[in-house]
Amino acid sequence: MQYKNVANIKKLYRGKQNLPPQNLPYLDKLAQLGPGDLIKNEQTPAKSEVDASFKLLRKRQIKKYINAKILIPLINLHNIREKHYKLAYTCFNGIYQDGYTLKNAGYYCNSRVCLICNNIRTAKYINKYYDTLQEYQDLHFITLTVPAVNGDVLRDTIGDMYRKFTLIRYKIKRKDKLIGLRKLECNYNIEKNWYNPHYHLIVQGKHIAARIRDEWLRLYPNAVKSAQDIQEVEDEYTEFNEKSLLELFKYMTKLWVSKNGKINFYPAYAIDTIIEAMWGKRIFVAYGLGKQVSENVNTEEYKMVIDKYRNDIWEWSKDMVNWVSIQYGDTLLPYDSGAKVLKKYQNKIEILK
Ligand SMILES: [Zn+2]
Fold first, then answer.
1. Cα 15 to ligand 1 centre (Å)
2. Cα(24) to centroid of ligand 1, in Å?
3. pLDDT tens, 321-345?
4. Of 51, 80, 180, 313, which residue is most buried, by most CB within 10 angstroms?
5. pLDDT, tens digit, 9 for 90 and up, residues 48-74
6. Are 117 and 12 in contact (CB under 8 A)?
7. DSSP of 173-235, one letter per residue?
8. Which spans in 15-114 are helix H?
9. Strands 180-189 and 284-287: what pairing?
């Protein structure tokens, strides 16, 4: 449904497009209402709903800006994933306004690089698992690492980790029930050009956590023992709350390091190596918690509202760092907000080379 109805909107307003914006105010509901008007059932949305929508849009405005910074070097690699990165570049590019409702006019790209899609995914996983996990006592975080590897064997190494974890799971299943979540992550060390794939897990039962760690060390005798960390969730976070789960879900693939208040993204080749190595592999796996949640974010419906009635398409402008009306040329978020995002983030974000 990309840019659905854009042709109709363009047709509807043909001939009015050259008028300056002040002559074409928002279609005020009261002023425009006539007998049999199509908008008669629509109510002006509550202020709280409008505020929440704009808060979300402002977050996405920042994410669109950062996405572009990461994605341009990835697109410029001109490899087999170029199309994938281009789709991510135009993720959530158009917003369709139907009266008071704002909807994605394009698509969500589903890329693991995309900050917008990652954010939606995080919310989706928390919605699915938070309540369920809260019912369990004695939750533990575990980190399982393997020795660092070069990029050319990263995919095989991840495959090996999957197989070995499956072996461990079968062993545990003989006596116990494995309940928890497992997440795959990969860090990159730019000085050494090494990749550090690892698992983060949250599992129920201290003895199960210890068993997983011990079996892992048996299968990976060269893994650093002290790196196989177990932490009691309640110790770490006082109590199990959304924050503790957020830590686990936060990034589909964390592709940066924070340093001195700056966010340094891995170089494009390293991000691409990680994306390639994880391609088609599950990042999150749930055990004993019902059906797996899909990574697809297009299933999530985000209702956003605006208090100015209009039928329009707002299209992302990378120069304005804002969504701009295709009809009137005004901006969806405050006109100067794009410049503020630029000012705040252009020196804060760096793509390592
Ligand atoms: Zn996306």
1. 35
2. 33
3. 999 999 999 999 999 999 999 999 9
4. 180
5. 999 999 999 999 999 999 999 999 999
6. no
7. HHHS---EEEEEEEEEETTTTEEEEEEEEEEE-HHHHHHHHHHHHHH-TTS-GGGS-EEEHHH
8. 29-32, 47-75, 82-89
9. antiparallel
Instruction: Express each pLDDT in 186-238 by its tens digit.
Output: 999 999 999 999 999 999 999 999 999 999 999 999 888 777 878 777 665 55
CA of 215 to the centre of ligand 1 (A): 37
Q: What is the pLDDT of residue 31?
A: 38
Separation of alpha carbons 271 and 254, rounded Å: 9
Give 296 Cα–ligand 1 centroid separation in angstroms. 10
- Cα distance between residue 266 and residue 189, in whole Å: 9
Structural domains for the chain: 6-110+299-351 (no CATH), 121-287 (3.30.70)
Q: Tell me the HSE value of 242 on the side-chain side, using a 13 A CA sphere.
A: 7
Q: Which of 11, 47, 6, 42 has the alpha carbon at shortest distance from 27?
A: 42
Residue 281 vs residue 30, higher pLDDT: 281
CA of 108 to the centre of ligand 1 (A): 5
Find the radius of gyration of the CA atoms of the chain. 24
